[in-house]
Amino acid sequence: MLHENPLMADIDVDHWRNLQSLLLESAKEKRRIIVIHERGKILKFAHSAKAAIVRPISEVTDAHKDAEAIYDANVATTDMVVVIERSASDAYFKAVQDAWTPADDIDVYVHRAFTLMGQYHDGIVVFPGPANYRLGLQWRLGASYAEVEAAVQIFAKPETSVVFGVFEGDTLWTTLVLHFDAARKIDVVTTVDPTELKAVGSREAVVAEVTEWVGKQYGAVSLGLYSDRVGAERFLKAIDKPKALAELRRTDALIAKPLPASLAAVIKLA
To answer: Are 240 and 172 in contact (CB under 8 A)?
Structure first.
């Protein structure tokens, strides 16, 4: 789905930063206690913010129970506890490297990496967990990888662009522009350049100008979805995405231009 060598260009810093805050949750932002052990013998016991640690264990006997006990003893200063057995960590990263091929799409590689982590559930432990849903960068999409991939196949037209935008007032707070090649792989990931937009005072006018700008830069836009931040967050959290879009449209919180017939039909039935 994501081309092995996508173009990332003309990214507006503010739009990109706001997009990340909306879509991504990073383990690095969490207050973490990290325990590294070798067959139970603790090699490292540290807090990411260098806070004092209450240590309810002196060795690791059951990583899952021990991680929960450490969390409960330090809940006031800690968002998550990570307990890693050194040999399991080495084996995991070797498995990730061995599974990689140069032809892998980037998203396939990342998805495989987190899937493989689940196979080391006793050696790489996170509480609250599981590890493969907590470590690294996690998408706040409210949808599985398979569901996103299926949506791309249904709603993304080959050799066209898709635009997602979030408004704050009548000003674009963030945008995401994706171009799909003939095989429906994303070969461009970027944002709109707000310095090249002139429309003000009307979301509809801004959307029309964005559609024109993206069309000139990256190819005709086949789908554009825009909302305010509250609506975007509500949509991301929703499990029933068509229902969420239908509700946003009923409350005039969604601008869908252009809207392919396939997605319009799904929203209408929601």
So the answer is: no
